[in-house]
Amino acid sequence: MADDWDSDEPIERDVPPPVGTEFEVDEGGIGEEATEGVEALEGGLSAEALVEVGKVGAEAASASRRYEQAVRQCRTSADRVLDRMALPAVDAAWSAALGPYERAMRQVFSGRLSDMVQPGDTNRLLQQTELLLRPYREALRAYHGTQRVIAAEGLRSVEDFWRQVAQQSSSLENVQTHARLVEMQIRHATQSRLVHENQLVGRVPVEIGQKLLQFEIKGVNVREFVGRAADLTEDQWWQMERLVRTETSRAYNQAQSDAIAEIATTTPGIWKRWTELVDDWSGSPFDNKVAKDSLVLHGQVARVNGSFTMPPDQRAPAVMVGKTWAQPPNRPNDRAVLTPWMREWGIPAWAWQGTKVWLSGSNARA
After folding, report:
1. How many Å apart are CA 208 and CA 305, to the nearest integer?
2. Rg (CA), the chain
3. Which end of the chain has less Cβ packing within 10 Å, N or C?
4. In this predicted structure, what is the pLDDT of residue 239?
5. Is there a contact between 351 and 359 (Cβ–Cβ < 8 Å)?
6. DSSP state of 344
7. In this structure, is the dihedral angle defined by the CA atoms of residues 318, 319, 322 and 325, taken in order, positive or negative?
8. Spatial distance between the Cα atoms of 240 and 301, rounded to a whole number of angstroms
9. DSSP secondary-structure letter at 23?
10. Could you give phi then psi for residue 116, rounded to 5 degrees?
């Protein structure tokens, strides 16, 4: 599935409602909070009261600025674990495995390298399952070795986010709590690795076998046959890279989800927010790689143990509508990050309750 796409078609914007717009939510009181400043001005309050209203507005603007800065830092952190840790480790392991891989395949046909490929040679090579899977296994092993760092970075991202935006400390700063959450992520990663290895066992021999059989039918010598087999594997790097990008996003956001849930044990009212590379106030994408379904999901919030839902929207692929995710990613190469959210910060956010319900928003910055 393609990550993103460009289009000349105009993009519909989901612009947050202006302050003062009334709306309903399951917890009540939000509409009243949104109109409080307007009512104060219209009600002829005292100068002292108006000063207090102004302070509330200034505090909201300050929280908004802190939130934007924290989101940028969160994205920097997510990019760092992928581009400087996960991908380099996997790339090195993959490349290092390819040389011995081709030599081992030649040994399978020792003494016959100059001969023409015979019927059955493809099946003979496919019987070497462990040999065929070696580069993939080595790459996955290297990726698994980065999981502790990815988990720690995801937790630290939320810890820093919370300290900056809420201006409070959290239980994430406790060494024992941090270690417990990291170990939880390692268990998730181990299970995920086993799933991917099982998928490789069923997929790789079939894909390589179908293509090698074509070379066998055409008639090439064994040396070229083995070289083509090595090339076929090397050409699969794009799949391994996509897997690493997607799984790193999953692991990073899973760690953030667990961190937000941990904060929620002592802080009622905290939600998790699906945050894309989209401007919170205008609904405009920050670059031309932002997919249309990303525009649809951006800004949705869910309870810490809840899920995000793709609403019916012409910009979202039909196969996604109605599907739910506990955290990003919702497809390969998804660039979304999970961030904490509280309504008093004033950051635009909406919940899916069978319809799109705005919990906070404004057409202009406070």
Report:
1. 42
2. 26
3. N
4. 86
5. yes
6. G
7. negative
8. 31
9. -
10. -80, 145
Is the Cβ–Cβ distance between 81 and 349 less than 8 Å? no
Question: CB within 8 A of 227, min separation 6: which ones?
Answer: 102
- pLDDT single digits (tens) 155-171: 999 999 999 999 999 99
In the structure encoding, which two tokens stand for residue 156, read together? 């630290």
Predicted confidence at residue 126, as pLDDT, reads: 84
Q: Is 366 helix (H, G, I), strand (E, B) or coil?
A: coil
Q: How crowded is residue 33: how many other Cβ atoms within 10 Å of its Cβ?
A: 15
Look up tokens 């391994």; give the residue: 240
Three-state DSSP state, 324:
strand
Question: By the 8 A CB rule, do 340 and 165 touch?
Answer: yes
Residues 158/260, Cβ–Cβ less than 8 Å: yes
- Distance (Å, whole) CA 48 – CA 8: 52
Secondary structure class of 355 (helix, strand, coil): coil
Give yes or no for residue 101 having a pLDDT over 60. Answer: yes
Q: What is the pLDDT of residue 124?
A: 85
Question: Are residues 99 and 58 in contact, defined by beta-carbon separation less than 8 angstroms?
Answer: no
Structure tokens at 91: 């790339």
